[in-house]
Amino acid sequence: MAKQRLVILGGGESGVGTALLGKAKGFEVFVSDKNKIKEKYKDVLIHHEIEWEEETHTESKILNANLVMKSPGIPERVPLVKQLREQGVPIVSEIEFAAKFTQATLVGITGSNGKTTTASLTHHILKQELEVGLAGNIGDSFAKQILEKNYPNYVLEISSFQLDDIVGFKPHIAIITNITPDHLDRYNYEFENYITSKFRIAENQTKADYLIFDADDPVIVDWLEKHPVQSTLLPFSLVKKNKNGAYLENDKIIITIDNNSIDMSTKDLALEGKHNIKNAMAASTVAHLLRIRKQTIRESLENFHGVEHRLENVLKINKVQYINDSKATNVNATYYALESMDAPTVWIVGGQDKGNNYQELFPFVNEKVKAIICLGVDNQKLMENFSSMVDVIIETQSMSEAVKIAYKLAESGDNVLLSPACASFDLFENYEDRGRQFKEAVRNL
């Protein structure tokens, strides 16, 4: 029998991981990237004798595929993708492809914000007692881990773009942290399309599977009322008591599953802020489902210090605290950041706008922000929204310049916060690059 031809569009982490797994499972594999492939990935492809091309897509080598795995960064509207669809070639995401080759218990986490923190925290708790991998949008590719590690459990951080290309993918435990308008540029500026996309995480679940979600999020609650899912529901809430699921009472998180309850104090949580109580609830619910001991969950919550580029304290210089929240790539993430500021703040904001509505930030800006530094190629929308609210609003095109200006504007006791509310691709490689440049500029002051 002829080998099945697997074509992979995009030679990044997920693409190369899929190529390795595909080859090991007997596919004829071809990797094609419209841009340059990073040296480290090229070396892997060459070492494993996998055919590849860069800076072009050779149609004759792609349209004859039996199966295509496309990188989550490639939108549907790309002509090549449309052609493949017209020819009826199945297109899947890495998580769809890889999940077929594992019997592991999968925990899938999606949401507009909090998914990296929740995934990292869930993994941090589970790994104390279980063998568990962390993959998806984070760390090493899922496909590669299945090939090399073959863990019995995986925590997957999953973006809406990855969910757009699933067919049968089904996590045993799914989490939706929250849904706020994000990436609308990829969903024809229709919020509905984006919500539908997020809920695909539960579309193949049965009664034997679990959906953990924020019961305080009106978008999620409303959607579930109109589009019931098969999954067993485990809501978490700061305000409502849930018979099944998690809620907050007298500074305690109480989690109940099938009449079996555990409780934990929130006083000793290493992460601050209301949104982190929610992240802790979601992660602890997973741990409780997978029978992790209460003591282990408590200790893990107390010693988990968060992820890089998410409200990360960098340095204090002349009694000014510099905070890196580069991971805030949408308005809602920046909302949490500004909400948690307890001192006058010089705010560095801007980048590639994804159809942002800044209105929900206005009260915080009026109350806490003393100066705004716009860091983007096009800052017009920021200027229109905020120039009447602060005395000082300055445009800049480089991180080092932005940090130097912030240093001049900030006084003893102030915060300097990088929380861009936008994507980073106009001036930086990605949000990590933006965060690292910020930290470097602060250290060079």
From TrEMBL:
Pfam families listed in its UniProt record: Mur_ligase_C, Mur_ligase_M, MurD_N
Mur ligase C-terminal domain segment(s): 309-422
Occurrences of domain Mur ligase central (ranges): 109-287
Sequence positions that bind ATP: 111-117
Gene Ontology annotations of biological process type: cell division; cell wall organization; peptidoglycan biosynthetic process; regulation of cell shape
Gene3D superfamilies per UniProt: Mur ligase, C-terminal domain, Mur-like, catalytic domain, NAD(P)-binding Rossmann-like Domain
This protein's pathway: Cell wall biogenesis; peptidoglycan biosynthesis
Record localization: Cytoplasm
E.C. no: 6.3.2.9
A single GO cellular-component term on record: cytoplasm
Gene Ontology terms for molecular function: ATP binding; UDP-N-acetylmuramoylalanine-D-glutamate ligase activity
Keywords associated with the record: ATP-binding, Cell cycle, Cell division, Cell shape, Cell wall biogenesis/degradation, Cytoplasm, Ligase, Nucleotide-binding, Peptidoglycan synthesis
Reaction catalysis annotation: UDP-N-acetyl-alpha-D-muramoyl-L-alanine + D-glutamate + ATP = UDP-N-acetyl-alpha-D-muramoyl-L-alanyl-D-glutamate + ADP + phosphate + H(+)
Primary role: Cell wall formation. Catalyzes the addition of glutamate to the nucleotide precursor UDP-N-acetylmuramoyl-L-alanine (UMA).
PANTHER family cross-referenced by the UniProt entry: UDP-N-ACETYLMURAMOYLALANINE--D-GLUTAMATE LIGASE
Entry similarity comment: Belongs to the MurCDEF family.
Protein name (Swiss-Prot/TrEMBL): UDP-N-acetylmuramoylalanine--D-glutamate ligase
Species name: Xanthomarina gelatinilytica
Chain's gene name: murD
